[in-house]
Amino acid sequence: MKFLEEYRDRRLAERYARLIARITTRPWTIMEVCGGQTHSIVRFGIDELLPEEITLVHGPGCPVCVTPVEILDKALHIASQPEVIFCSFGDMLRVPGTNGDLFSVKARGGDVRVVYSPLDAVRLAQKHPDREVVFFAVGFETTAPANALAVLQAHKLGLKNFSLLVAHVLVPPAMEAILRSPTNRVQGFLAAGHVCTVMGFEEYEPIARKYRVPIVVTGFEPLDLLQGIYMCVKQLEEGRFDVENQYTRSVRRQGNREAQRLIREVFEVVPRKWRGLGKLPQSGLGLREPFKGYDAERKFGLLDYEAEEATECIAGQVLQGVKKPHECPAFGTRCTPERPLGAPMVSSEGACAAYYRYRRLRPGASAPSAGAGEGTSDG
User: How crowded is the C-beta side of 80, counted as CA atoms within 13 Å?
Assistant: First the structure.
């Protein structure tokens, strides 16, 4: 296949759905880890093509969604300082902290800027030596190499006015936390193709063996996902618990060694607090000792700050696959993209945002069509 539309061919999608139905003999629950996969599943109605025995649940693979409120509060505090230029990707600007979001800081006069690369923030630090430039480093392993490169570039240039507010998290520890949970119902995983493009999938193999769950590295288009589901169900039906790679056009078992080297040079593995999952050991990245001078939490004296999540938001249950967004009493009423209670309603990878956009019924509106290849034009 060479073109995007080929990965959205309705006839091939229906053929895969029939193949899945043919091999399915009992109920199975499969979690897609990545929020990008969730959006494709909901947008194209992939879950509605599957036999009723197959249940897809949504995982913690949206980096915006799992960023805890205390990190957001730290971002709001830093961005409010008059000497600061606070840089972020656009997804983070609408995510609520305890009191407001980054857009509200900007409205009050804070210098909050959307950038497209952490290197844009490095250039701003060069251009404004009298200002502190802070980049909000949110993401899984996918974005870590670029953030590591930004630190190395700032170090090479001798910049003292550049730092990262680091909120990097790692996928495998979150998968293990879900599998250890007494409420777990996940029997197989669709792993995130972009994370594995960087990291490979060797580190998933011990998880598959230990917890006896098949893991299939999967892409993001409808046929990617349907093929990944087929591979996962086939393993479950055969009693196998292997790591398989559906996304062969991008992922290799060993991943991108140069990107991994960059991550190891700048970051070290640390405990990290996750929204809805709590503090998980060895589940995040923090700056190594030679680069602590680029740590915004340390620079602004925020290392000991803690905050509690909003009690009405059930993001934690959604991120663990225990509940689906529409099962939240606040969904679409007290929680909307305009007035979100939590990050999953505003992130472009958030499960709640996907359900609100593609599955929410307005008065007089009809349900979104379920067939692969029939999504909206702007997805």
Answer: 12
CA dihedral 355, 359, 363, 369 (to 10 degrees): 160
CA angle (112 as vertex; 108, 118 as ends), nearest 5: 170
This prediction's pTM: 0.89
Would you say 193 and 251 are in contact if contact means Cβ atoms under 8 Å apart?
yes
Write down the residue that tokens 């229906």 correspond to.
Answer: 14
316/375 Cα distance (integer angstroms): 28
Q: Is 51 exposed, middle or buried (0-12, 13-18, 19+ CB in 10 A)?
A: middle
Q: What is the pLDDT of residue 361?
A: 55
Question: What is the separation of C-alpha 22 from the centre of its chain, rounded to a whole number of angstroms?
Answer: 32
For the CA atoms of 175, 270, 198, 257, the dihedral, rounded to the nearest 10 degrees, stands at -130
Q: Which two tokens stand for residue 360?
A: 């929410």
Q: What domains sit in the chain, N to C, each tagged with a CATH number?
A: 4-54+184-244 (3.40.50.11750), 65-170+255-299 (3.40.50.11740), 315-358 (no CATH)
The 54-61 sheet, strands edge to edge = 54-61, 28-34, 188-192, 215-218, 243-245
Q: How far is CA 88 from CA 98, 113, 284, in A?
A: 19, 6, 19
**Beta strand pairing status for 188-192 and 243-245?**
unpaired
CA distance 65 to 329: 19
Q: What is the share, in percent, of the chain residues with pLDDT greater than 70?
A: 94
Euclidean distance between CA atoms 201 and 230, whole angstroms:
19
pLDDT tens-place string over residues 112-154? 999 999 999 999 999 999 999 999 999 999 999 999 999 999 9
Question: What tens digit of pLDDT does each residue of 312-368 get?
Answer: 888 888 888 889 999 999 999 999 988 888 889 988 889 999 999 998 753 333 333
Q: 């509106």: which residue's tokens?
A: 365
Phi, psi of 178 (to 5 degrees): -65, -45
Average pLDDT over residues 4-28: 93
